[in-house]
Design brief:
magnesium; alpha/beta; 10 helices; binds ligand 3NM; 39% helix; 207 residues; globular
């Protein structure tokens, strides 16, 4: 299935088991029912799963995305993209190069994180489907996150690249999500506002 990229970025939920204090499949199912527009399986950092356990959880989450017709994007794991027939892959600046990924996956969604102009200038933006810009606000979810770059970063990118699909990330919650869109992003991506929500449906509705 192919997905139009900008609408898919609108409410882009990211999660791995390390972000969850209950069954990740239940959390994803609730989020899918509530109207997320894309999902990224990001099994990364302290206490994350590896090898077979990572694959098995991936199969469950992939199936939920198929059921709800939501793009399933894998964070930085080419083998898992292939094994799960993911719709796309998201990488950071220090991960596998976008040039290699585009050769391996001519038709899949490729997303790339960019935090500053140096990174933008070094990146083959013509080969990516979207960029993740952040961290917009400060976050404790990603232990090695850089300092918050603020809404100005979205404004700068939007001015320089009027048509590039952009999703904001980092510290986005129900109170500040609309400011990210107003600054020029096509959508918002988020982890803890959903994984730690008392009521996932309400959180997604408010976003
Ligand atoms: N990447 P929360 S910030 C996975 O800046 C991730 O590239 C970031 O989690 C970046 O929505 C981040 O809980 C964590 O702040 C986002």
């Amino acid at each position: 299935m192919s997905f139009p990229i900008k609408p898919s970025l609108r409410k882009y939920f990211i999660m791995g088991s390390q972000n969850c204090d209950r069954d990740p499949a239940e959390i994803l199912e609730a989020a899918a029912k509530a109207g997320i527009t894309a999902f990224q399986y990001r099994e990364k950092g302290p206490a994350s799963l590896t090898s077979n356990a990572k694959l098995e959880l991936g199969k469950q989450l992939r199936a939920i995305c198929k059921q709800y017709q939501i793009p399933f994007i894998v964070n930085d794991d080419v083998e898992l993209v292939e094994l799960l027939d993911a719709d796309g892959i998201h990488v950071g600046q220090d991960d596998q190069s976008v040039e290699e990924l585009r050769l391996a996956f001519p038709t899949k969604i490729i997303g790339l994180s960019v935090s500053n102009m140096d990174e933008v200038e070094r990146s083959p933006l013509d080969l990516v489907d979207y960029i993740g810009a952040g961290p917009i606000f400060s976050t404790t979810t990603k232990t090695d996150a850089k300092a918050a770059v603020g809404l100005e970063w979205i404004q700068t990118l939007r001015t320089q690249f009027p048509t590039l699909p952009i999703v904001g990330i980092g510290g986005i919650n129900t109170m500040n999500a609309s400011s990210v869109l107003q600054a020029g992003a096509d959508g918002v991506s988020f982890i803890s506002v959903v994984t730690q929500a008392e009521d996932i449906a309400v959180a997604i509705e408010e976003i």
